[in-house]
Amino acid sequence: MDNVLEILRERGFIQDVSDEPQLADIVAQQPITLYWGYDATADSLHAGSVMNLMMLAWFQRCGHRPIALAGGGTTLIGDPSGRISSRPMLSEAEIEANLRGIRPQLERFLDFSDGRALALNNLEWLKPLHFIDFMRDIGSRFSLNRVLDLEAYRTRLEAGGMTFLELSYVLIQSYDFLHLNEAYDAILQVGGSDQWGNSIMGADLIRRVTGGDAFVLVTPLIETSTGAKMGKSAAGTIWLNAEKTPPFEYYQWFRNIADADVARFLALFTFLPMDEVRQLGSLPGAEINRAKEILAFEAARIMHGEAAARQAQEAAHALFAGAGSAETVPTAEIDRERLEAGMSVTDLFKQAGLVSSGNEARALINQGGLSVNGRPVSDIHCRVSLSDLDNGAIMLSRGRKQHIRAVPQG
């Protein structure tokens, strides 16, 4: 059995591990069950979740059983970690709809056949809990002083306070770990480093209640070398849902990372052997672009499949290398009658989703940042019409990295 901790450390997944020598001995000798939890605040995960999904996939490849735990119950409360204000409350129906959208994304990374991985929802065991029993059996085992020492809770208090509902989050997340330990033999919780405090409290709860061992492993919170958060772009969040973020845009986000991030991202977001990762990451000068293409293709292939990754690659070549077909660039439908009458360029870019407002479009035009059919827009008052169609579409570009084919409909 391959030592999964050695693989994860070499590839850059590990920031902190509790009782690492003991955990390393256990995973080297026998399969374990581990879990990662996510809250269903949207109907899609985003690229910031991919690191944890890749880590679960590595555990599974090494013979262990991962659990993807949907926070159907905890989403009703809202995790205060990293927040200075309360999260919006969602209904159970909204959360269930979100989970239906997320499940296919989990299946891109994990094999759920024959119980090799599990997809669970903590609402199943949280909703039937009786408050008095829960507070007596679980709440009595927590020190309020210790909870308030956790950075997430301390930050919220300093920012103006928090509700008792949010204060209970650490109890409920800890109870999740205890329940999964007792019902599924889960001994390891994994997640981002912002979850270290909550996760350690869960491991401590297991030791107090059962006397058994439990462990926590957290990843670094990934930022690019420019300081941008993982999965964020100028246009907003990079979603895993192909309708929210088309495969071309997903491909391009990875393709356009800084040279300094190539080797690190190849290690984290592909399954390529580390010898190949190091070789690609050390390519000199402009040759590093070949490594970026491989990274973008592999990341898109894992998330969206081989065919979509090929299409995204062809679209990028069509736009930037004069090869391939531009038909695979994402499209936006524009009302034909409006184009017949002549549509303001600022409104067209807004309708296509490349800007959020007319003011943003005007500012970008003044900076030379918007183009129509490859030609920079210089006049904020110009209009675009059907006469601008090229092969049935109008190519709109924001900078060199964001492109939409505006196609008339109706």
Tell me what the structure shows.
The chain is α/β, with parallel strands linked by helices. It folds into three domains: 4-219, HUPs (Rossmann fold, 3-Layer(aba) Sandwich), CATH 3.40.50; 232-327, Orthogonal Bundle (Tyrosyl-Transfer RNA Synthetase); 331-409, Structural Genomics Hypothetical 15.5 Kd Protein In mrcA-pckA Intergenic Region, Chain A, CATH 3.10.290.10. It has 19 helices and 15 strands. It has helices at 4-11, 20-29, 50-61, 92-106, 123-126, 131-137, 144-149, 151-158, 164-167, 169-184, 196-210, 247-255, 262-269, 274-281, 288-304, 306-320, 336-341, 345-352, 358-366; strands spanning 16-17, 33-38, 65-70, 118-121, 186-192, 215-219, 232-233, 236-237, 331-335, 343-344, 370-372, 375-376, 383-384, 394-398, 402-409. The strands form four sheets. A six-stranded mixed sheet has the order 1-6-5-2-3-4, sandwiched between helices. The protein has a five-stranded mixed sheet with strand order 9-15-14-11-12. Strands 7-8 form a two-stranded antiparallel ribbon. Strand 14 and strand 15 form a beta hairpin. Helix 12 (247-255) packs antiparallel against helix 15. The chain is globular, with a radius of gyration of 24 Å. The relative contact order is 0.10.
